[in-house]
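Bumping with the actual sequence this time:
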Amino acid sequence: MSESTSTVRDRILQAARSLFLAKGFNGSNLRDVAKEAKVSMGGIYHHFASKEDIYEALLPATELAREMPKIAALFRSPKFPENLSEIGRAIFQLVRAYKDDFKLVYIDILEFQGRNIKPLIDALYRVLLQHSDTLLERQQGQSSLRDIHPAVFTRSVIALFLHFYLESVMLQQSLSDELQMSEDAIADQIAALLLHGILAPTSAD
């Protein structure tokens, strides 16, 4: 019984994913992919025009495309921005669970100037921007936030938590282990830093 077209295509994608993660995009070629997937070169070209074509099909299929909207949903919570610790923990869980997907994102940034991941990032930021007006209304009269645009605040939250946890996971340099502090406690401290700043307000403020 012949193998279905979708099964062959999925096998090619899985083989390419494994090779890209192990050897990098430039360190792999289509013959490597064909060998790993146990298909002929003709089988590769039946489904994909090039190695880049395979990569472009891989990225939207990552779990990140499905999980990032869940992070964005936390910004819609009535508790925002007091729920920053929850957002931080959710981002850490995302990074830890889908480390290899983030590696594929790095490949896109290095090899293709991020053009494949950009639509996913833009979609996330569009969602965040939709809630900026709500946050702007909430912050009226709060002197600590009055001069900060909500879009700057929300993107800063994502950037700080994401970079912090990516560095920890990718470089295996865990501040949690170093300080003997739980990841939850670290998320709480980052949230406190974002909400209250480094310096306590003075009477002049």
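The tokens above came from a reply further down the thread. The domain at 5-58 is CATH 1.10.10.60 (Arc Repressor Mutant, subunit A).
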